[in-house]
Amino acid sequence: MTDMEYLLSDEEVQHFIVEGYALVQTDFAAPVHQTIYQKLEQVFEKEGNVGNNILPRVPEIRQVFDHPKMRGALTSLLGEDYILNPHRHCHLNPPGSPGQSWHKDCYVYDHNIRQPRFHWLLALYYPQDVTQDMGPTGILPGRQYYNEVSDPNAQKTTESALGMCGEAGTVALVNFDAWHRAMANTSDKKRYMLKFQFARLQEPRRPTWNFSRSTWEPPAAAADKQVWLDVWRWMCGEQAESVPVAALNGEVDELLQTLRDGDEAGRLHAAYALSAAGAEAVPGIVEALRREAEERVDGIEDKTPANAHGTNPTALHAAQALIPLGLSILPQLIEALEDEHWLVRVSIIDVLANLGSAAHAAIPALTERLEDEHWWVRRGAAEALGRMGDLAVGAVPRLVECLGDEDQRVRRMAAQALAQIGHGAEGAVQALRSMLDDENRYNRFYAGLTLRRLDDPQAQEMLLDALFTARWCPMTTREDLY
What we know:
Helix content is 40%, strand content 10%. By secondary structure, it is an alpha+beta fold.
């Protein structure tokens, strides 16, 4: 149980929503950070960068993420049921480094769609003091909701940058979609930064921070105000049964035009403004969604600074317009799951995933999509069913079948969905055992995660056997093999 003393406040959560980061200082009486730094030096000198194995190689790092302040901050932003992803990396920024270009990270080779309602965080840990001249990780505060910046070249970027500096033990929790880069190291010191990833497993049902009031009034002139408020309400567990219809005075057509033809900021703001029109705007939004899907489909997997592996596009703006409308248009969303265009189906499924368990009426239709001809639709349907939690227990047999899907991304998301559904997924045990030998390293992790969460002795025994086989000894090195 997380100590409430270490949970974030309303203001701190709102700051994260707006700016995209929070700084946490993990202080210890013992020299934990110094020990970690010294071990990193030894590992890099003798073995180089060990990639995902940095945690078993330097197990003291675990103490940082078990620190009460870290647990409090992670619980506040991701809920009580969050996981540490198996992908992690130690970034060494040496003296004289010119730094990187601005970019967004990818979701470890999975095809997540970027949405303002965030489910993942980057945790950037410094085991030594880091000052501005040492090349800290820099971010562009407030730009996490955008697919574009003025220029990825740091010498030409006009947005204001902020270096994540701090004493040893500083952890920057950063929105996964934040624009960031390693800044130039003009000092004579090495800068280590250990990047870890955390993700929520359950949709918000109530605030999980030191919550005092649900009302929040950002400055009226703030351009992204409606985006921030939508994220805030979602984190508070609010799902309106209907959206109050605002008097837009004939502006719906103008907003739809902006949604189709505006620049990125205009489209984003039009998407959230249209939600105030209620059902009146839905036909126009769906039409805009189909048009946008046609326009973007050929480049949806293009590799760009905002999508380095081509795997994580920003959501279609027309789809973003449907999320705040939510349950008031659920029948129309379910109907649109039959659309002939696969990218429309994927986008609608992602809308339903962002509505979570409140959209449980869509479970039968989503279950049918597990057999869709397009792998991205199948993957998205599994993700959406997982977001429904134990309400989707009826989909378990189909999800178990998906553990054997030809596409590794479908298999991974099916395993994660079964972990989120939990009880009732015991029939998946044998299929998950096979997945512990999957060709994809991350699929093996999610198979193990699901087995761990099942209240089944056979599942626990299988998991322990696999973990003992895969055990990494942190004391074994080239100099000390035995």
